[in-house]
C-alpha cells in the first residue's frame, strides 16, 4: 500500500473516531488513529469531564485502548485530526504518552497532523526530542 493510501485511510479512521467525541465543554472534537506493523488500527476520541482538568485527549484514549488490547510495540503511524481547517498537533501530554508505546517497540512513528484543509507530516521524535521514556529508567 502506498504511503498516501496509508495516510488517507488512517486520517479517515481518525475522522470517524472524532464523530464519537464527548466534548460538551470545549466543543472541540478530536480524533486519533494508531497504525501498527501488523496492520491493526486503533482509534480514540477526546472525552471531557465536568471537572475540566480530567479530560482525556483522543491520542491518550487511543494509546490506552491499544495497550489494553495487548500492543506493546510496532507503532508505525499516528493520525490526529481536529474539527478545524488547519492541522492540529498532539498536546505535550499526548506526545509523552505516545512516546511510551513507540519507545517500547523501538519505532519512531510518522505523525500526520490533520485538519479539514491541511495535513502536516512529522515524526514523534521531532515533536518530542530527547524524550524521557522507559530507557531513561534503565
Ligand atoms: O492533542 C490534543 C489536544 C487537545 N485535545 C482535546 C482536549 C479537549 O477535549 C479539547 C480542547 O482542548 O481538545 C485532544 O484530544 N488532543
Automatic annotation (TrEMBL):
Keywords: Hydrolase, Metal-binding, Zinc
Positions with a binding annotation for Zn(2+): 57, 91, 94
GO BP annotations, alphabetical order: nucleobase-containing small molecule metabolic process; pyrimidine-containing compound metabolic process
GO molecular function: cytidine deaminase activity; identical protein binding; zinc ion binding
Annotated CMP/dCMP-type deaminase domain residues: 5-135
Binding site for substrate: 46-52
UniProt KW Metal-binding keyword: yes
Cofactor annotation: Zn(2+)
E.C. designation(s): 3.5.4.5
Annotated catalytic residues: 59
GO cellular component: cytosol
Catalytic activity: 2'-deoxycytidine + H2O + H(+) = 2'-deoxyuridine + NH4(+); cytidine + H2O + H(+) = uridine + NH4(+)
InterPro entries in UniProt: APOBEC/CMP_deaminase_Zn-bd, CMP_dCMP_dom, Cyt/Deoxycyt_deaminase, Cyt_deam_tetra, Cytidine_deaminase-like
Free-text function comment from the UniProt entry: This enzyme scavenges exogenous and endogenous cytidine and 2'-deoxycytidine for UMP synthesis.
Family listed: Belongs to the cytidine and deoxycytidylate deaminase family.
Protein name as it appears in the record: Cytidine deaminase
Protein species of origin: Altererythrobacter xiamenensis
Amino acid at each position: 500500500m502506498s504511503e498516501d493510501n496509508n495516510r488517507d485511510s488512517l486520517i479517515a479512521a481518525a475522522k470517524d473516531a472524532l464523530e464519537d467525541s464527548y466534548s460538551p465543554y470545549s466543543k472541540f472534537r478530536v480524533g486519533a488513529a494508531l497504525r501498527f506493523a501488523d496492520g491493526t488500527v486503533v482509534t480514540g476520541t477526546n472525552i471531557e469531564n465536568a471537572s475540566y482538568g480530567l479530560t482525556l485527549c483522543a491520542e491518550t484514549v487511543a494509546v490506552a485502548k491499544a495497550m489494553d488490547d495487548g500492543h506493546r510495540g510496532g507503532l508505525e503511524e499516528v493520525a490526529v485530526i481536529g474539527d478545524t481547517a488547519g492541522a492540529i498537533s498532539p498536546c505535550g501530554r499526548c506526545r509523552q504518552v505516545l512516546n511510551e508505546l513507540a519507545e517500547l517497540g523501538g519505532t519512531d512513528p510518522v505523525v500526520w497532523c490533520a485538519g479539514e484543509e491541511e495535513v502536516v507530516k512529522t515524526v514523534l521524535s521531532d515533536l518530542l526530542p530527547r524524550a524521557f521514556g522507559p530507557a531513561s529508567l534503565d
